[in-house]
Write a structure and sequence with these properties.
Length: 301
């Protein structure tokens, strides 16, 4: 019990120091646009590469063994570091908004991000540009981290507009099943899927990229492949695709629909923060048939 209280006190100290620093800093730490401004850029046709705490940690080798479902790779680390400072005309880079603002978060999230910033400030300042306009990677975490959820509905409606009357190609890990069984992609003209390994997808990065190049450039590309998606969205933008590193957004949308206050498992889908990457059977035959009809290829080791 004493150790638990000590840990809570330590988190509280990080949070209070961080809040004080944010309130009294003469210049902003970084320029990060809001979640709504970020989605608006996607509606304008921009591609996006997103960096969560995991991708940032890979950049500065905080986790030398890698992160969940992606082992360390020197080439991947260098690509992530380069893209973080990139400046394509049709592409934006997103980092966590909570690096500069924590007062709108739940207390648990505020503790997490305050500690993350305070213990990684040196590495962040080394790899992030002070004058670069970044966007908020939390568009895929728009619901649970925030006690005031009035903005969540606005974000959902804008994101749905992104798919309206578009041919959508999803690159995802086996069992991710992005958008399956909910209304997120309801207004898309067509949905197709290319399945990739759920772990260590970067090992076959060139194969995934070459297969994606066979897709029409008129299609909207959604990528849910961890750090591989961050890099792939950039490379696809360079050759004229609109590619969205979409990440966790579908699961967050499921939690939004459920109005849950905690992370819970989702039927038919891998939820790596709850159940891990598991092969869940789709029990509804109609839904299973719909999903299997959408699979146009698999890229494997």
């Amino acid at each position: 019990m004493g150790l638990k209280i000590l840990k809570i006190l330590k988190k509280n100290i990080y949070w209070r120091i961080n809040k004080y620093k944010i309130a009294h800093e003469k210049e902003p730490r970084y320029i990060i646009k809001t979640k709504l401004e970020t989605v608006d850029k996607l509606l304008e046709g921009y591609s996006i590469s997103r960096y969560g705490d995991g991708e940032l940690s890979l950049v500065y080798k905080k986790k030398k063994s890698g992160i969940n479902y992606q082992e360390h790779n020197d080439e991947m680390r260098k690509r992530l570091a380069d893209i973080l400072k990139s400046n394509l005309d049709n592409h934006i880079v997103a980092i966590p908004g909570p690096l500069i603002k924590v007062e709108d978060l739940t207390i648990g999230e505020a503790y997490f991000w305050s500690k993350y910033y305070m213990t990684n400030k040196g590495n962040l300042d080394k790899h992030l540009l002070k004058d670069k306009v970044y966007y908020d990677q939390m568009i895929s975490r728009f619901y649970l981290p925030y006690p005031d959820r009035t903005e969540a509905h606005k974000i959902v409606e804008k994101i749905k507009r992104l798919f309206n009357n578009r041919n959508v190609t999803i690159l995802e890990g086996e069992n991710t099943r992005f958008g399956l069984g909910n209304s997120l992609l309801k207004e898309a003209k067509m949905v197709e899927r290319i399945l990739c390994p759920p772990k260590n997808a970067y090992k076959i990065y060139s194969k995934i990229l070459e297969r994606t190049k066979q897709v029409s450039k008129e299609n909207l590309i959604l990528i849910a492949l961890g750090p591989t998606a961050t890099i792939l969205a950039y490379d696809l933008a360079k050759i004229g695709y609109q590619a969205i590193d979409i990440g966790h957004l579908d699961i967050e949308y499921e939690w939004y629909l459920m109005k849950t206050d905690k992370k819970v498992d989702i039927e038919n889908k891998a939820v790596n923060e709850v159940s891990g990457v598991v092969d869940k059977e789709i029990k509804d035959n109609k839904l299973k048939a719909e999903y299997e009809a959408q699979i146009i290829d698999r890229v494997t080791f």
